[in-house]
Amino acid sequence: MIGEDQARRLAAQALELSRPDRAEVALKGTSSKLTRFANNTVHQNVSESDARICVRIVQGERVGSAITNRLEPEGLAVAVQKARLFASESAADPHLPAIARQAVAAGLDSFDQATAEHSPDARAEAVGELCRRAAGRGLNASGAFRVAAEEMAAANSEGTFAYHAGTAADFQTVVMGDGSSGWAHAAHWKVGELSLPGLGEEAIRKAVEGKGPRSFEPQATAVVLDPYATADLVLMLNLVGMGAQSLIKGQSWMVDRIGKQAMSEQVNIWDDGRDLEGLPLLFDYEGVAKQRVDIVKGGVVQGPVFDGKTAKRLGAVSTGHGLSPFLPTLARGFGPLAMNLRMAAGDATTQELIASTERGLYITRFHYTRTVHPRDCVVTGMTRDGVFVIEHGRLAYPVKDLRFTQSYVSALNEVEGIGAETRLLSDDFLGMSVRAPAIKIKTFRFTGTTA
Amino acid sequence: MHDLLERAIEQAAHRGAQYADARITENQTESLLMRDGIMEVLDSSQDNGFGIRVLVDGGWGFASSHDLRPAEFERVTDQAIRIAKASAQVPGGKVNLGSPVASRGSYVTPVRIDPFSVPLDQKIAVLAAADAGMARAAGVRVRESNLVFIKEKKWFANSDGARTEQTIIETGGGMVATAVGEGEVQTRSYPTSFGRQQLTAGWEAVEQWDLPGNAERIGNEAAALLTAERCPAGTSDLILSGDQVALQVHESCGHPIELDRVFGTEAAYAGTSFLTTEKLGTFRYGSEQVNLTADSVRPRGLGTFGWDDEGVPAQSSPIIRAGLFIGYLMSREMATRIGLESNGCMRASGWNRIPLIRMTNVSLEPGTWTLHDLIADTEDGIYMETNRSWSIDDRRYNFQFGTEIGYEIKNGKLGRLYRNPTYTGITPEFWNSCDAVCGELDWRMWGTPNCGKGQPSQIAHTGHGAAPARFRQVRVGIHQ
């Protein structure tokens, strides 16, 4: 972690080197630690300290950028030189928004010292406890326990400077038995808010109850989804169409659906970077304060999130959802994405959702989901870590994993009930988080099975 | 650089490490992405840092930093030791790394034209020409083309005495045409999907791909797909293009032969493997036509290098011979669990990640057919080309793939165009249904620069040599 003062100095140096051109500077610092376990033992245990800066130079309608984690003056100078060269060689971009002074996002404290200083010994103790409990039940625990302190800054030649530091903690585990497995996962910006024994017990219970799974003929049937599976629906809808770029490309599921009732009235999905029940992000790397954006309200599709460029192109205003310049090039092709998603809770317990189901499946989570067709967000994937048949409102028996091919838009149009409790889950690759409840869907289409 | 590494390893030994290795990498990447004639991304990235991995009392620890000053090496080495001691509190079995690895030498990817020596305007000109070509096709809504160039220098040392230095150069490029119609959107990519083809090669690869020369064709194909008939549902003989076979190999062979997955160390994330150790040497993975090899020596593959990230020399290993499963991808530690030595498959995605067992170049060896003859030999079937979606279960057993384009095969000839083609199967059943693989004429090295594994996540670059192949009576046309 380099801190706000150092971030401000580095940004000022880079902007000074960029003169007389207009420029934006993004800075990201990471101190991340992860303890990984499998077969009831810690097998990988890692730590990373990094800080990098992105300089983006604008010459009229042309832009070039360079990223470096060499933060000494020579490293910065090389980056600025490259960004300037690239800008001068680039073609004009009529959609390029002008660099402007941005209103600074109001502060929000999401930095927890205990999380930032969480020790490998403390992680080993928590993991060791789970491994001993799993072994005591004849089970095999695997998983990962991550804690991180992360900081970001955005500055530009028009006087913008924004800085935020936050922490994150994430615990996930698969507990496996002979032919069965269970899963638990939770995230929070305070490590102390994670109920590690509870998560371990949740995965152990599923693994025990899932023993002896039977075959199940693939078919269209009702499902009750744990929050882990619901989160996959929300995340895939994000990747396949909550950003304005996918709308411009004509690939979004929102095409022809904005303003229309495309989902059940019970469905409300929004993005809010200031939600302290999420993993807060206050602004994007363009320095724009994140707006709370309704994606789906009462089942009606509201519209996408924007960055500066897509906003200019569609005559809208940036909602502060520019994608990180530190992601790989092809990931940046997504354009703006929602990063702090939330699906509204309902008023039922998971048990009540199951009790209201005459026949169907109770599903823990989905695995390896991929888009088959973007316009309806048709997705294929597998179930994983606990699938149970529901008969007459009760869990009857566990079944083997199934493959599904299903439109997620259609699925959310058939929501019949939503759980009262939500779970926060995070994805460390894209830096997204989603808080989701359990849901009941009238019909979900399964198309294959694992032999 | 080796001085810094050696001091860190000595320090680790003084602090009680039974084994230590350390890497410094300097990664330079140049990325260009053009969309609808506009340069969306034109940037350069410099990513330097080091990592040290230690084994203390049977526990592994790894720490890394972007700061290459000597004092930071000392701090990070101490941190790695502390982490390893914490790991040892939740112990597993004794770690056996097998024979010492004390490789020495240097390696540089052979290239004809260093891509970083090519002027920027020449690179932009290629993308502009490709963009113009796609624009000539009526009905194309979005045109995207990109180039990526990577040069990574890496210094490695370990406590066995290894000292290696290598420079890996990669060149990637590709384009995608997207057509949008009434309630329908279709894409066509070239040379392959997910944005680009990528090889350990120089600028000469871009010249060989000839993006401009293929641009109008893929634009026209994307537009034609909008009104094409939907791929029929049922069971059919199936011919896959070389790039789709490469992805099939990656997902249904490359991953399940990773020995760490077999031993459960990826269980919580990527999953495990159906290719458990009792199957080694006895399991019929595929038909007699199926021969797969893992190697890190074949030219131009993204898995081609001098040494892996444990210092084990590049080599070639048979995986499947005449359909029989006979080999794994292995690390030093995992190999000893089955009484073998590493075959050099430990790769880290950067200085800030530990090495994991990763694919090198896992390739389907060429057969004897030509694609023309194979189609002519097929009375009734479907030809599918270029991946669009891919999903496989956590044991790498049940899969479902979709491709960008399909064609009916009738009486030995390509017929109607099919949109949204998909097929599904069970890995060993599918490979046992393979009755023909095309030969050298149609065999290519394909790159997969987006292979995810591990926590924290790592994106590896893997290579796959493949040619078109035929599979009998496959379930196709799975729709919602």
Question: Would you give an account of this structure?
Answer:
The complex is a heterodimer of chains A (451) and B (480). In chain A, 24% of the residues lie in helices and 39% in strands. With 451 residues, chain A is an alpha+beta fold. Chain A has 2 domains: 3-206, PmbA/TldD superfamily (PmbA/TldD fold, 2-Layer Sandwich); 213-449, no CATH class. Chain A has a 6-stranded antiparallel β-sheet. In chain A, strands 7-12-13-15-17 form a 5-stranded mixed barrel. In chain A, helix 1 crosses helix 2 (73-89) and helix 4 (120-136) packs parallel to helix 5. The model of chain A has no long low-confidence stretch (mean pLDDT 96). By secondary structure, chain B is an alpha+beta fold. In chain B, 21% of the residues lie in helices and 40% in strands. Chain B has helices spanning 2-14, 70-87, 120-135, 204-209, 211-225, 242-254, 259-262, 332-337, 371-376, 427-432; strands at residues 19-35, 38-56, 59-65, 104-108, 140-158, 163-181, 184-190, 197-199, 229-230, 234-240, 292-295, 316-321, 324-325, 346-347, 356-357, 361-364, 380-392, 398-410, 413-419, 422-426, 434-437, 444-453, 458-466, 469-476. In chain B, strands 1, 2, 3, 4, 5, 6, 7 and 8 form an 8-stranded mixed β-sheet that branches. In chain B, strands 10-17-18-20-24 form a 5-stranded mixed β-barrel. In chain B, a hairpin with a 2-residue loop joins strand 18 (398-410) and strand 19 (413-419). Chain B is globular and about 70 Å long. At the A-B interface, strand 1, strand 2, strand 3, helix 2 and helix 4 of A face strand 1, strand 2, strand 3, helix 2 and helix 3 of B. Strand 3 of chain A pairs parallel with strand 2 of chain B, so a sheet runs across the interface.
